Every structure is written in C-alpha cells, then in structure tokens.
Amino acid sequence: MRSILNSRARRWIGASALAILAGIGGGTAFVAATAPSSAQSAKLVPAAQITAPAVTNVPNFADLVDAVKPAVVSIIVEGAEKSPARQLQRGGGQFQFNFPDLPDDHPFKDFFNQFGQEFGQGNQGQSQPTPPRKFMAAGSGFVISADGYIVTNNHVVENADKVTVVFDNGTQKQAKVVGTDQKTDLAVVKLDGETDLPFVKLSDVEPRVGEWVVAVGNPFGLGGTVTAGIISARGRDIQGSSYGDFLQIDAAVNTGNSGGPDFNMNGEVVGVNTAIFSPNGGNVGIAFAIPASVVKQVTGQLIQSGTVTRGFLGVGIQDVTRDIADSVGLKDAAGALVTEPTKDSPADKAGVKSGDVITAVDGKVVTNALDLSRTIAGKNPGTKVELTIWRDGKEQKISVELGKLDESKLAANDNQTQPAQPVQPEPASTSVGLTLVPNADGNGLLIQDVDQNSAAAEKGLAVGDTILEVNNTAVSSVADFEKAIKAVKDSGRNTALVKAQRDGNTRFIGLPIDANNS
After folding, report:
1. CATH number at residue 459
2. Which of 38-42, 69-73, 359-363 is predicted least confidently?
3. CATH number at residue 176
4. Residue 478 class from Cβ within 10 Å (0-12 exposed, 13-18 middle, 19+ buried)?
C-alpha cells in the first residue's frame, strides 16, 4: 500500500505492545482500583453464572466474508529493479573515485579493488555495471471472472518477473500480467486454464458517504485479513491525479492491502485500495480506493487490448473562482475555464474558444477542471459529446467528437513562435496598479511593475507575466488595456477577466477593479 507521506513504509508492533493488545483482545476486564473487603468478596458472583443480554442492530459481516473471501487473493511478486548502477553519493552530489594504478604486489592493491567493487567500480576504479537488485513484494487482488482474470494495483506488479497468486485456502498458482495502467494504478493478471474460479462482481451502484465497507486483503503479508469501516468521503483528489476519483474509507488499510477490494453489504466491490495517508506507513483511518466505475472501465480495456485509451478534448483548463465567475457573469463559481484550445484539436475544430466556460458534458454538470478531465478521460476516442458552454454572458451547446491524445502534436503546438509586436518605448502605468509595456517577443503586454497594495498583486500577477486579453479582448497596448477595463466598468461589473501567461502556461484571473477610477 502506498503511503502518501511515507511510501511503502513498514512498522511492526513490538512484543510489549502485542502483549498489551493480547490482554485487551482476550476479554480480560480490569475493574476496581482497590481490593474488595471480605464481605464484598463473599457477594461476588462466579463468572460462569453471568449471562449477557442479546445485542441487536449491530452489523455482522460474517456471512458476507464467508461468501466473498474465496475470491480475494494475495499476490507475491518477484522481480528486479530497473535502476542505474550504484554511485557513491553525498549531499545530493555524485562522486567518481580515481583509484591509483598500483602494481600487483602492492599491499593496498586488494583494498582498492574491494572498495571499488563495493561502489560499482571494478579493478582499480574501472567502471562496472551493477546488476539489478532483486526484490520481492506482496499485495492483494480479487478474481473478477471464472476464467481467471484478477484485478490488482499497477504498483503491486510493476517490474514483476514472476507473479504468484495465493488463494485463501493456501493454493498457489502462477499468473501473467495482462496489462497495466499507471495513471489509475490498476492492473490485470490472468491465471491460464481456469474455468470455474469463485469471483466477485464490481458494483453498478455509486456508493454513498456513510455506507459500510468491508476490506479484505494481505496487510503485512497476513493474508485473508478482514477489516470494516465506512466510506468517509468521495471524489478525493490525491497526488494530483487527473484520472482517479477516489473514495476515502476508514477501514484499517495497511501495507499489503494494495489492490485489495472493498465490499458493500451486498458483497459487491465498490473500490480497490490504492493508497493511505499516514505519517508512519501504518493505518491512521484514512485510506483511498479507486471507485468501481473507474475499475470497470479500465480493466475492461486492459482485458480486451492490454492498454487503455482515453478521450481527448484538447483544451487547457482551470477552475472557475468566485472572481472569475463575477467577471463573466456566471451565478455559480463552477465549471472549467478554457485557457487555450490546442491547435487542430477536437475542441478547436468544434469551435471552443479561449475564455469559454464548460459547465456540463452531455448534460452532466462539471464542477471544476479536474471533474472535466475525469469525465473526458472516462470516454473512448471517437465518442461524440455535447458541451454546454458559457460565452459572452449566455449559454450555448457545442458538439465535439473526442480524439486520441497525440503528444507530438501538442509539443509542436507549444513550440510555435508568436509574431513580434511593436515595442512601446516607455512602460506605462494603468488604473489597476500594473505598469505595462508591449511584448517584443509575442502578443500582449508585459508586466514591468506591480503596485504591491493593488488587487493585481493580491491575485498573484507578477513582473514578467504577460497580459494577453482583458474581458476576452486581445490587448497589445496600454490604451487597449484601459479601454477593456472601462468596458467592464461601463457594463456594471466590478471584476475583469484577465488572460495572463507565465513561463508558457496560460491562466485566467478575476481581477477586481475600482469602479470609481476612470
């Protein structure tokens, strides 16, 4: 199980701690701080005569566990790390030792040879490749078909040369990796020759926060371990993933639970454990699982073709802040603001423009930029989608046929040189606390100075940024800039939508303006 703070950290409970836990778990009760008197002792009832009332309305997972446990497996991986030759390091730097050329009978000859071999250098400092370091790892998985397809995590089987599947009854079988997807951290392995394996189903129903979940897996190599908890939250964004939509659960999940299933009360898989939040590598009640909807889509493609392809819209996007919503006339600060469509991308060909706010896809509301990325990634190339766009103060719809990402085209588009613009001899100040000058190396206006007491400074505009547009109008002079600011004021709004660029990255800023200035 990956720890967000300390990856793959392991920590065993000490013997003394185990002894304490054994006392608690064994039913030993500790009561009374003082010894009873003889009279009191005579009134004590023998433990054998005490009967406890029946406890009702408490969840019992025993039947569920009996039903699903045969389909949950431990996965043992053997392989070799694909790492470069070892080098001596200190303080982040690398050192290459030049060993002296000594005669064979020199007393230090053997010493230097041994020292060199220890750090990846052979006789007398000659560079020698270090063989890949072998490793063994353990994770979890679960069978999803009678003919032997098993779901686990990508990071469990990564770099695996040998994958062994261990069933709950102790049976061990060799499996092969069918396909992996690093972006969602999912993988599928296959047991050949199987026709009647017990398997479990991925849930078709979206889980709700507060529902019970039962996690089964192989924590710390202790296979067949069952823990229970609830779904604590949905839609978690961890480690900047653009493709996951993680469930947060509080069932105890630890190292080795990676790839293991989380079941609902119907015995269906609602999530696959993939990461924990932990300061020490152990369970602290915050674990993250890939939802069944994502698992179903990704594993289906892996089984069919061994790879995953995703829909490509071709837009740079950012979240819609309250200031940005005010600047474009949106009631709610929601949606994904298009910073720039990629040239010749599906979005560009369909007419999507910089400054558009995508508020829905096929009628499904888009809450933010990450939500749009996940929605598009969940569709196949060639799928036609209907985008709901907010443009020029009104809503419209655009139909787009999704493509497949072409990295080479994106790189070529990013490297295009913008035409040069005339340079204004002297920078000029503006009514919003910016000092601007036309950009000699491209479009827009360069920021030469920012009043640190201005709203522009508060919103993060800095010297060196380029102002490309104001209120969806291109600006190439300070006069253009002030005219656009005035148009915003005349419209009755007090926030201007500013399109800015920094280090080649484009973004929009909702810039508050003083309506009393002219």
Report:
1. 2.30.42.10
2. 38-42
3. 2.40.10.120
4. buried
97-103 CB contacts, 8 Å cutoff, 24+ apart: 97/121, 97/125, 98/125, 99/124, 99/125, 100/124
Mark 487-515 as b/e (b = at least 16 C-beta within 10 Å): ebbeeebebbbbbbbeeeebbbbbbbbee
Residues 272 and 142: their CA atoms lie apart, in Å, by: 9
d(C-alpha 485, C-alpha 454), whole Å: 15
Q: What is the pTM of this model?
A: 0.64
Specify whether 406 is located in the same domain as 449.
Answer: no
Other C-beta atoms lying within 10 Å of the C-beta of residue 122: 13
Residues annotated as part of the active site? 155, 185, 258
Q: What is the mean pLDDT of the chain?
A: 79
Q: Is 366 among the domain residues?
A: yes
10, 276, 62, 269: which is closest to 152 by C-alpha?
Answer: 269
pLDDT at 67 exceeding the cut of 90: yes
Tell whether 251 is covered by a domain: yes
Phi, psi of 180, deg, nearest 5: -135, 155
- Tokens encoding 462: 């800095």
pLDDT digits (tens, 9 = 90+) for 280-305: 778 889 999 999 999 999 999 999 99
pLDDT digits (tens, 9 = 90+) for 214-256: 999 999 888 899 999 999 999 887 765 666 689 999 999 998 9
Structure tokens at 358: 């995508």
| DSSP assignments along 182-206, one per residue | TTTTEEEEE-TT-S------B-SSP
Q: Give the span between the Cα atoms of 50 and 246, in whole angstroms.
A: 47
Q: Which of 256, 249, 294, 37 is nearest to 141 (CA)?
A: 256
Q: Which domain holds residue 446?
A: 428-512
Same-domain status, 333 and 263: no
Could you tell me where the DSSP H helices lie in 51-128? 62-68, 109-118
Residue 27 in domain: no
Q: What is the dihedral of CA 205, 209, 211, 213, to 10 degrees?
A: 80
pLDDT tens-digit profile of 164-191? 999 999 999 999 999 999 888 999 999 9
pLDDT tens digit string along 332-345? Answer: 999 999 988 988 89
Question: What is the per-residue pLDDT for 15?
Answer: 31
Q: Residue 160 has which token pair?
A: 């695996």
Q: Give the confidence band of 34 by pLDDT, cuts at 50, 70, 90.
A: very low
- Pair (410, 435) in one structural domain: no
Element (H, E) at 455: helix 455-458
414 φ/ψ angles, rounded to the nearest 5 degrees: -65, -25
> DSSP per residue over 141-180, as a string?
EEE-STT-EEEE-HHHHTTEEEEEEE-TTS-EEEEEEEEE
Place of tokens 């919503």: 325
